[in-house]
Design brief:
This protein has 740 residues and is mostly helical. It folds into three domains: 161 residues, abc type-2 transporter like fold (3-Layer(aba) Sandwich); 216 residues, no CATH class; 238 residues, no CATH class. It has a five-stranded mixed sheet with strand order 4-1-5-6-7. A two-stranded antiparallel ribbon has the order 2-3. A hairpin with a 2-residue loop joins strand 2 and strand 3. Helix 8 runs antiparallel to helix 11, helix 11 crosses helix 12 and helix 11 crosses helix 18. The longest helix is centred in the middle third of the chain and has 37 residues. It is globular and about 100 Å long. The N and C termini lie far apart (67 Å).
Length: 740
């Protein structure tokens, strides 16, 4: 064997692989881009993993001058916490016990009832005679060994009743609450012990004068259900995804390699029928894979874990758990099958198709792991998140919390079905696109690529250039966020807008396009359109205000983050500076980037509304807070619609300026709203923690006015791109020849 020949073949094969642009992208470029984007997503969703408020019921809280303070103003004393903010997370409900009442007959039953009703995460029970017995205990300590002390009674007097904590250790929220409350009581007991050692000269054993007992209120079988609820949903989703991917690759990319796809497409079957046939085939394999893996896991896990001495009661999952999993498997398999089918249709070969598995898994994994985090419970906000809502709903059903899960079932089902519909439509579009189905392998050479960019520039950017610009802005913003001085809001906002958002878009416009004016929509719009855009911003403000309150209610802002945001704006009293950095500058820079370069590139796909949605998603992702991103996505779609209908960037810029200015102006009205006689009460109900709230007639009237203005914009004739005109012609021709 000649190693020189091996070397030549090695060099040839490596060079051949590096010339394939998509192979190079998946191996070298995607890892550099994907993980920073996942890091940005982590910061967006990190607030959902914050420490939530814990509801604690305290029965018979002690009050005695001989005891260090335990409760102050309906909270545990701040002296018992190293971090004062941690004390605010424990919300106490105090219930006194009559002094003449003896020990309760069944505090366990009362604790179970309270937590079964969902009122509290943990219950703390102090016996009614706790204070009196402790005072006798303390008095006996002080007089121990003195003539006043009675050595015969000292043993009885040194007995202090136990404090009992009632958590439900089968629930993550109650388990976390138990750890916090037990830690507080331990520190309180240590303070008492130190005080006892200071008052007397007794041995260190007297530093812990009473015991704290934990009594688990979980019913029989709840621990087993809780354990399975953390395992089975995760396995269900992962294997449903894996089981759908490889059949999809074989049915699409494999058929391309075997040359049988052309035969299938030339058959009398329509494209939509082919898509549904392949989709149902993939779904069958996905469901079969997930079902077999779940069955094997359940049998093997229950047998092995049941033999362990620490888990003798861990048996097979409850029978209803299998039913809920099988019901959830149908929409989950449909969603993953449609996504895999679309990706497989895009892939030219099975090798290229396999490259797409890892990004799909990396996007799905955080949505699957997030529900496993401590403190993440099923709520309205979490149920609206795809995949995450399914996992949380399955957890609740497997744990037997049917009443708590019932209100969220329609929401999770609606979100999942909507995602399925979008994924199926995407797969259908892939099969209707001949350039996707029959594209050739793309060889990539750095020199030729650079020459092509500089020599063959078009009037507007391509879809890939617009996508690259959006990703580049997000990446720069992610890394710049670690070096910016967030304490100075004006400087941070100016640097972000000018350097992070505007500069990449302007540089790419100059370097990659022949017509910056056409790319950035630098045209003079009709005067009526300008006035209508300003009126639309004013009309939409009450509705956006209500949406912001709803979003903040569904996804509450972390209290620490809220305090930081207030601190950032507290030093800026100059309204003109705020107007410049928070209204004018974002309106210009963000419109140039997102409604200029990026929207122009996305329109090259030939679908106006797809371009609007994609550009607004990038616009929303550029905002730091998740709550801001949701509202920004909706407003971004409205502004992109104005830009397309008018063919100019100016109406969107003015809409943006007016909208941000109104948000700043309304925030300054709180002192006036405190006066009940002020005329503003005709418009607003007053200020709250979420913001200023408008009266419902004002909101409804403004929404109707906004709808009328948008309808006027919709009737305006707009300049279609060549790709949009071609796509409309194709759709018209298809509809003409569609059999009735």
């Amino acid at each position: 064997m000649k190693w020189s020949n091996v070397k030549l073949i090695l060099v040839r094969e490596i060079r051949d692989q590096l010339r394939d642009r998509r192979t190079l992208f998946m191996i070298a470029v995607l890892p550099l881009v994907l993980y920073p984007l996942l890091g940005m997503s982590f910061f967006q969703v990190a607030q959902f993993m914050r420490e939530h408020a814990i509801r604690v019921l305290v029965l018979g809280a002690p009050h005695s001058p001989d005891l260090p303070p335990l409760v102050q103003e309906d909270r545990f004393s701040n002296n018992l916490f190293a971090d004062p903010f941690a004390a605010q997370l424990l919300h106490l409900t105090l219930r006194d016990l009559p002094a003449d009442e003896g020990p309760r007959q069944d505090p366990l039953a009362e604790a179970r009832r309270e937590m079964r009703e969902g009122n509290f995460e943990v219950v703390v029970y102090f016996p009614p005679n706790f204070v009196s017995q402790f005072e006798r205990f303390h008095s006996a300590l002080l007089h121990h060994g003195t003539p006043e002390g009675d050595s015969q009674a000292s043993e009885a007097e040194l007995q202090v009743p136990r404090i009992e904590i009632f958590p439900n250790l089968s629930k993550e929220a109650s388990k976390a609450a138990h750890r916090r409350v037990a830690g507080v009581l331990d520190r309180w007991r240590d303070e008492i012990g130190q005080q006892n050692l200071k008052d007397t000269q007794l041995p260190p054993a007297t530093a812990k004068p009473f015991e704290i007992t934990t009594l688990d209120v979980a019913e029989e079988g709840q621990h087993k259900a809780a354990a399975w609820s953390k395992i089975l949903p995760f396995v269900l989703l992962i294997w449903a995804l894996t089981g759908a991917f490889y059949p999809a690759i074989d049915l699409c990319a494999g058929e391309k390699e075997r040359g049988t796809l052309e035969t299938l497409l030339s058959s009398p079957a329509e494209r939509i029928e082919i898509v549904w046939g392949k989709l149902l085939t993939i779904m069958i394999f996905s469901m079969a894979t997930a079902t077999l893996n779940l069955a094997s896991l359940a049998v093997t896990g229950s047998f092995i874990l049941g033999q362990l001495p620490l888990m003798p009661e861990f048996g097979p999952p409850p029978g209803l758990a299998i039913l809920w999993l099988l019901i959830a498997l149908v929409p989950v398999s449909a969603l993953f099958s449609a996504l895999c089918l679309a990706l497989a249709a895009f892939a030219r070969s099975t090798k290229e198709g396999q490259y797409y598995l890892m990004p799909l898994v990396l996007v799905t994994m955080p949505l699957t792991i997030l529900p496993m985090s401590p403190g993440v419970e099923l709520s309205l906000g979490n149920s609206l998140i795809p995949v995450t809502g399914v996992v949380l709903l399955l957890r609740a059903m497997l744990e037997g919390n049917y009443l708590a899960a019932l209100p969220f079932i329609p929401i999770v089902v609606a979100v999942t079905l909507c995602c399925c519909w979008l994924a199926i439509r995407w797969a259908t579009n892939q099969f209707n696109n001949e350039s996707v189905l029959f594209r050739e392998s793309e060889r990539w050479d750095v020199g030729l690529w650079v020459k092509h960019l500089l020599r063959d520039r078009e009037a507007t950017p391509s879809f890939g250039e617009a996508m690259f610009c959006g990703v580049l802005i997000l990446l720069i913003k992610f890394f710049m966020s670690f070096s910016l001085d967030v304490g100075n809001l004006a400087v941070a906002a100016a640097v972000t807008q000018l350097v992070v958002i505007a500069t990449p878009a302007l540089l790419m416009t100059i370097m990659l396009t022949r017509s910056p004016a056409q790319t950035l929509l630098l045209r003079k719009p009709p005067l009526a359109a300008v006035a209508a855009a300003v009126l639309l911003a004013v009309a939409l403000h009450p509705t956006v205000n209500v949406l912001q309150v709803i979003v903040n209610h569904v996804y509450p802002l972390d209290e620490r983050l809220a305090e930081q945001l207030k601190g950032m704006t507290a030093g800026l009293d100059n309204m003109w500076v705020l107007f410049l950095v928070l209204a004018v500058m974002p309106a210009i820079c963000e419109e140039v980037a997102f409604r200029g370069f990026i929207l122009s590139g996305f329109r090259r796909m030939g679908h106006k509304w797809t371009a609007i949605v994609l550009s607004s998603i990038f616009f929303g992702a550029s905002h730091a807070l998740f709550q801001q991103s949701l509202i920004a996505c909706l407003l971004g779609a409205v502004i992109a619609f104005l830009a397309i209908q008018t063919g100019s960037l100016l109406p969107g810029v003015l809409f943006h300026v007016v909208h941000n200015s109104l948000a700043l102006f309304v925030g300054q009205l709180k002192p006036y709203l405190e006066d009940d006689q002020h005329w503003l009460h005709w418009l607003m109900r007053g200020a709250s923690e979420e913001g200023q709230l408008y009266h419902w007639p004002v909101v409804i009237g403004s929404l109707l006015a906004a709808g009328a203005i948008l309808s006027w914009f919709h009737r305006l004739p707009y300049a279609r791109t060549a790709e949009e005109s071609l796509q409309e012609a194709i759709e018209h021709q298809s509809a003409r020849w569609m059999p009735s």
